[in-house]
Amino acid sequence: MTTIADLLREVLRMGDESGVRYVRRRHVPEETLADLAHRTHEYAFAAGRQGDPGDERIYEDGILPWWREEGGLSEQQAGRLFHLRSDVVDWLGERGLASRSNPRSTPLRVWRRSGVSPIMEINEWWLDDPAQKYWMEITGRDDIGNDLLAPQVSDAGRPEWGYELVRFVKPGDVVLHWSTGQGRRGLVAYSSVAGPPGTTTMVWQSRGTTGRTHTGPPTEEPAWTTPLADLKYLPSSITREQLQMHRTAVLDLQARLKEAYGGARLYLPFYDYGGRELRATQAYLVKFPAQLLTLLGLVTVPGASSAKEAIEPSRRTRRGSGYLPDVELKRAIERHAVRLAANLYESEGYAYEDVGATHSYDLRLERGPEEIHVEVKGSTGVADTVELTSNEVSHADSTGWETQLVVVDQISWDTNAGVIITAGGRLRRWRKWHAQPHRLTSTRYRYQLPSEDEPT
Hints:
This protein is of the alpha+beta class.
């Protein structure tokens, strides 16, 4: 599963948090290590050549090169995982799944895992929200809309959540179809679930990274299936290239959903490949959050009108920039404003970088030799004033670049399952902006405390 890329980025982040250069087994939770080891084992078993006995494979290409390619990692990032590679092999060896002739040996002997239960635990985070009835099938099949059909276990003999989710769809749910086959590619259609899940058999060979390296013939295996009906093609497909227009917004929504559900696995439909491109998760079936329907403009999908990002405008309207005592709400409003500003400049041909976390302005724009710095402010009310820090004022008055001010006010917001959802807003822009002194009003002072015996 290409979520190996997500796992690798996650363990690198854990290494950063631990303040270490090289990530080791002790720096990551056991669950994360197990997931990484299982996915590495599955790939090595599928990519390896036949060994002796017949259930043995010999993988000779090295784990680290595969991690680097599949994770979109730089040479430096891959180097930080050098020792973790050995830890993963040790973890597999402890369970009788792999071994090396010596610690420095590249060839890895891998065995099929035996005695695996065909059922795995799934986090049904959507159960308490009737609006979360959407799924997305990712497939190269020519007969989309006929049924959902997935093997019960992978090539390595273990269950995968992308297959297991077929068991959890219900009659009346909606399945969107992301096609990877010939002809129309991307998000192309949707169907209705016409009956309960069941079991069958299928002739199957895995696809994606694992399937490309599987040299054996397809085999008939137990499978999960669910009938579909009422296939309808979207008026306009969403291709992978078009998906990039929504990259920031989609990642922001998925991050807020993860935060709302305590960081648990949510089986989300998209991931950020190499930190630069939004791609469909290469699982067979994923959960499609209802909020994405509005975000991606999928207005023809049944129920889209009741799954809008904001059900009604915020009642918190006042003059000024709008007082928001909730820190998370304020962050969501700021992110929304920056997202709209970025979309505006991108449509005008600018390349942009979000630098708000490290600089005293929010966006750096480039178009040819031109460089512009942008200060962005967001508000739920009608903004006739905005708050500026002293650093923001100083930066706007510098002469080494053009500064622009973008204000997005009248932003609507609501909450859905504890997640703050933002929408709309009025965008205004001031080019060649300087913080004119006569428009500044002191609203706060910093007071230097005197010594205790000094007169006050």
